[in-house]
Amino acid sequence: MALGYMRILVAWLFAVASLLRADSAPELVKSVSIRGSSARVDLATQVGQPYDTAVINQDVHRLWSTGRFSDIRVEKAPDADGASVIFQVVETQTTPLHKIMVEPSTFGLQLMLPEGTPIDKMRAHAIAAQAREELKSRGFQDVSVDYKLVPYLSNLVDVNLHVEPGERVRVRHVDFSGDLAIDPTELRGALQALRAKRILPGFPGLWSGWRLLPAYSADAVQSDIAHLESLYLSKGYLDATVHWDDIEARNNQAGVTIRIQAGPRYRLRSATISGDAVPASAPGELCPSLLAQRREAERQGILDFTVNLDASRVEASDNAPLLVDLAAGVDRGRPYRVGRIEFSGHRHYSEAMLRRNLLLDEGRLLDERLLRKSLARLNQTMLFDPIGERDVHIRTDQATGVADLSIELHEHKGGAWNLSGPVGPASFAGPLEASIRSRLPAWGSGLFELSTWTAGLSLFAFAPPLSPLR
């Protein structure tokens, strides 16, 4: 019996000693390799470092984020006094795009990608997800979008989207409940996504006019709740709460009720921005100073501009107004200069023509104001579908302070003609823009959402866009 206890004790001591050795000498990585691809990816797992599963998981996420692989597996092989880490990958097979087709109808979706764009299952899945989110933002409920890759000729592929949109709901009216403290008319004026747009004015006693009701979506409600919260903060209602109270849907139309508790209104005793005192009596009066700083940062090529607010309430005596000390701190990122400016989707127009409409030059500070004006000039050519912020991709390099711009263009479909040009001196005509559009056929989902032919006429009194006549 004593001998048995002795054996158990010796085995326990050996186990403890091995654990101590493991703690004192962690397993090291002897080699790292990527098999199945010649792509070079900077990995955090390095030779000579301790074997760490958390670091390996980071590398797996980094490989997935490149979008170049359809399968990734990690193997650990024993090596002399350590381990070899092997990333087994399968490269994604891409096929050039021919076109995107939406069935049974386009539903007004803007999903055009340049012909020749590399397409794989992951990219097709992202296109379907984009279509789903766009339809939700337009008020379609219970949206389902499936995709299928269909070969075209010998080396191209079509992306076929099958859409089941469900019912479309529009917002008929927006009501407010609770302690408002602000006139409901002003609150409705602060709405953006949930506000109806008047297309044609009415005639008193005869016709109420023609309004385009906004689409209902949860994102639209949350967006306008944020606008209302900003309105209350700007007027000194620092404790205001805004949330949706009820949504009543009937006959594809919704009534939204937003509940508001304004709370007490504060007045500023003192206000500072980045330590400098500024004259203000209400929180909203800080906005012009912050906006001026933001515009100045834009001119200097600063893309990251963050405002941090700190409010300190002041104890007030009976019947005295509530006071608050408000301090705003501004964090500015580093300035960026324009690196390369690239265009895509301009098959029938030269890059020189596009660059003549740009007010930004490579090598100069990235002025966002000039970038917006450049997009406006490109839109004035009427050669492309409207260009917005989502069509501009900015790739920044923190180390060099260089930002590369990529502008994605979508040419009008065939069967369109455009005429643009000056209309004499500005002193004679002043700012003038006329646009006439007719679309055929007249059917479709919603107002002007289906079109096969477009006729456009654009007249500008001055600063005409530089474009050819076609």
How does this model look, in words?
Helices cover 24% and strands 34% of the residues. By secondary structure, it is of the alpha/beta class. The strands form 7 sheets. Strands 5-4-7-6 form a 4-stranded mixed sheet, covered by helices on one side. A 4-stranded mixed sheet has the order 14-13-16-15, with helices on one face. A 3-stranded mixed sheet has the order 1-3-2, covered by helices on one side. A hairpin with an 8-residue loop joins strand 15 and strand 16. The longest helix is centred in the N-terminal third of the chain and has 23 residues. The chain is globular and about 80 Å long. The N terminus and C terminus are likely disordered.
Helical content class: 10-25%
The coarse silhouette is: globular
Q: Using DSSP, what is the number of strands?
A: 22
Q: Could you tell me the strand content as a percent range?
A: 25-35%
Q: How far is it from the N-terminal to the C-terminal residue, by CA?
A: 103 Å
Strand order of the largest sheet: 5-4-7-6
Separate helix tally: 9
Low-confidence runs of at least 5 consecutive residues = 1-6, 19-23, 415-470
- The radius of gyration computed from the alpha-carbon positions, rounded to a whole number of angstroms, is 31 Å
Q: Major beta sheet, specifics?
A: 4 strands, mixed
The whole-number mean of residue pLDDT values reads 78
Class inferred from helices and paired strands: alpha/beta
